[in-house]
Automatic annotation (TrEMBL):
Source organism of this protein record: Vidua chalybeata
Signal peptide as annotated in the record: 1-33
InterPro entries per UniProt: Claudin, Claudin16, Claudin_CS, PMP22/EMP/MP20/Claudin
The family this protein is said to belong to: Belongs to the claudin family.
Bilayer topology annotation: Multi-pass membrane protein
Pfam families hit by this protein: PMP22_Claudin (PF00822)
GO molecular function terms listed in the Swiss-Prot or TrEMBL record: structural molecule activity
Regions that span the bilayer: 118-140, 162-187
Protein location: Cell junction, Tight junction; Cell membrane
The name this protein goes by in its record: Claudin
């Protein structure tokens, strides 16, 4: 039973870590959600803003200024939290690989291997909480920005919704949290 839980947690951790990495690297955290006929599709991300022409499919991206330049707080905080979540999830994945029963590393001491799995679960839980805070922070800020424009009757011709990168970040963080629960609570 323990080996099955370890392998399940490993698979979920691997998939969730990939989701977190994709969410951090991709550029569609916020998309335009205008109901009129669109000639372009605009995505804003943590690192750049891209516009895709709907008629010919040409995509152009504008990089944000230097990483040392002034950026909105939501971008800086989300970048920081997502990078930390990526690093912690990667560390937890490496620790979990070494702690799996099917790996021959430290095979003579199963107590150490079990502690490595518990440690991977704790590290993964910390990373998942950071990733979830970063993703939800960005999503709430997008919602508040849109609500402020609506409440002040300001219509700029376009409003934004959560993009697929934001959803990937939330899914990856949730998957990492579930894997950490499997590793810390269900392994005996």
């Amino acid at each position: 039973m323990s080996a099955a839980l370890q392998v399940t947690a490993f698979g979920l951790t691997l998939l969730s870590t990939l989701f977190l990495l994709l969410a951090t690297c991709t550029d569609c955290w916020m998309v335009n959600a205008d109901d009129s006929l669109e000639v372009s599709h605009k995505c804003r991300g943590l690192w750049r803003e891209c516009v895709t022409n709907m008629q010919d499919g040409v995509r152009t991206c504008d990089q944000y200024d230097s990483i040392l330049a002034d950026h909105p707080v939501k971008i800086v905080v989300t970048r920081t939290l997502m990078i930390m979540a990526d690093l912690l999830a990667g560390l937890a994945l490496a620790t979990l690989v070494l702690g799996l029963d099917c790996i021959t590393f430290l095979k003579e001491d199963p107590c150490v291997k079990l502690k490595m799995c518990y440690g991977a679960g704790v590290i993964l839980c910390t990373g998942s909480i950071l990733g979830l805070i970063g993703s939800v922070w960005y999503a709430v800020d997008v919602y508040v920005e849109r609500a402020m424009l609506v409440s002040h009757n300001i219509f700029l011709g376009v409003h934004y919704d959560f993009g697929w990168s934001c959803w990937l970040g939330m899914a990856g963080s949730t998957g990492c949290f579930v894997a950490s629960v499997l590793l810390t609570c269900c392994l005996y």
